[in-house]
Design brief:
alpha/beta, Rossmann fold, 9-stranded mixed beta sheet, 12 helices, 36% helix, 15% strand, globular
């Protein structure tokens, strides 16, 4: 194995850089104008919304065949395994959980998805299975989205779409897992918008957690939007991209005094072209196609989720602005950040700066050199090794 933890050390506060392979030749950057880019917020800059699929949708019979085969491949057969898909009453609403692991004795890892409103449950089939050998992994569809979107009364739910309510929901999910799985503590992994929820939960209830793990770490009130814009402009300038520069400069000054969804979408369109979403891919159409093949989702779930993403973002927008000055800085549990070097959705340099300011019993910052916003999909092998080497040892005995 190559020396991927050359800078790890064993100090209490370490920064780790995963070594890249030899540089490849210059990649031709496509200048695609993407329709329907991210549904984003003015805080974490990391949310997503559906992009147009690059292929015709599967017929009902074809989809059933494909998802059935994927389900067979993913099935956990050992008697000590756990494989559960359940709807739980949380905060006055139905919220779906997927609980999967090869051995019930393994530590529990709760994944808090991004967006707002972009569940990772329907993508988990593409990346999660190796992690289940070491953790019991819980995917949680937050209120009103994902499998919860079918039949949801979104008008009634809209007033509950606050950061505080989502943190309380996350706390309730952890308590449910403690009771139903017979564990004392869990790992919490916050991704993008979910990292905002996760850091607040970790700061508030350290008694529930082994550690906090952040991917695509969002840092409220950190200048993320300015960094995103300036770096995207710089990359477009380096490429001599007149079209990108014209569209980006038309948005100046950016960010505006009041968050603009249209402006944020326009910046992220070009950030993705220049590696800020998925390193080496100029759009996220593949990522947004993954739910079509998710065994856990029905076609009705997939269709409802596509509508729910924008609703969730718009419902939370004002609440997120009000929360922008409340990013936690002090933690009583270990903190591990897993960041793609090229991430512009939640800018790498902003997360790195925030990491330097926080206090925690131990903290680790891991850089994925060939990733942007999706290291679990972009570098799955290194992601697994990192989780096993850097996170798993932080579990306390059951």
């Amino acid at each position: 194995m190559d020396s991927i933890f050359a800078n790890a050390g064993r100090s209490r506060h370490a920064t780790i850089r995963l070594a890249p392979a030899a540089a490849s030749g210059r990649r031709v950057l496509a200048r695609l104008v993407l329709a329907a880019a991210v549904a984003c917020t003015g805080v974490d800059a990391g949310a997503q919304a559906a992009e147009p699929a690059s292929h015709p949708p599967l017929s009902a019979a074809a989809r059933a065949h494909v998802t059935g085969r994927i389900a067979d491949l993913q099935r956990l057969h050992a008697p000590e395994a756990i494989e559960r898909l359940e709807a739980v009453a949380i905060g006055g609403t139905q919220q779906w959980l997927s609980i999967r692991g090869a051995n019930r004795a393994n530590p529990v890892l709760l994944f808090i998805h991004g967006g707002p409103g972009s569940p990772m449950l329907p993508t988990a089939w593409a990346w999660q299975r190796p992690l289940e050998d070491y953790f019991t992994v819980v995917q949680w569809d937050q209120r009103g989205v994902g499998k919860n979107a079918v039949g949801a009364d979104h008008a009634a739910l809209a007033p509950t779409m606050t950061l505080e309510r989502h943190v309380l929901d996350a706390e309730a999910v952890v308590e449910h897992l403690r009771r139903s799985l017979g564990v004392g503590k869990v790992f919490v992994m916050g991704y993008s918008w979910g990292s905002t929820v996760g850091t607040h939960l970790a700061a508030r209830r350290p008694d529930l957690l082994h550690a906090y793990v952040g991917i695509g770490q969002a840092v409220p009130d950190s200048g993320s939007e300015r960094v995103l814009y300036e770096e995207t402009v710089a990359r477009a300038q380096a490429a001599g991209d007149a079209q990108a520069l014209a569209e980006l400069r038309a948005l100046a000054p950016y960010p505006p005094p009041r968050f603009s969804l249209a402006g944020a979408l326009a910046v992220r369109k070009w950030a993705r072209v220049y590696d800020g979403g998925w390193y080496g891919k100029d759009d996220l159409s593949l990522f947004f196609a993954l739910p079509e093949w998710a065994p856990e989702y029905t076609p009705e779930d997939v269709a409802a989720q596509a509508r729910a993403t924008r609703w969730a973002t718009q419902s939370l927008e004002d609440a997120l602005r009000r929360a922008a000055d409340s990013a936690p800085r002090r933690f009583e549990v270990p903190v591990v950040l897993l960041m793609g070097r090229h991430d512009l959705h939640t800018p790498y340099v902003v997360a790195q700066r925030w990491f330097g300011t926080i206090e925690a019993p131990t903290k680790r910052f891991v850089t994925f050199e060939r990733s942007a916003h999706f290291p679990m999909l972009e570098e799955p092998g290194r992601f697994l090794v990192t989780m096993v080497r850097e996170v798993l040892p932080l579990a306390e005995p059951r």
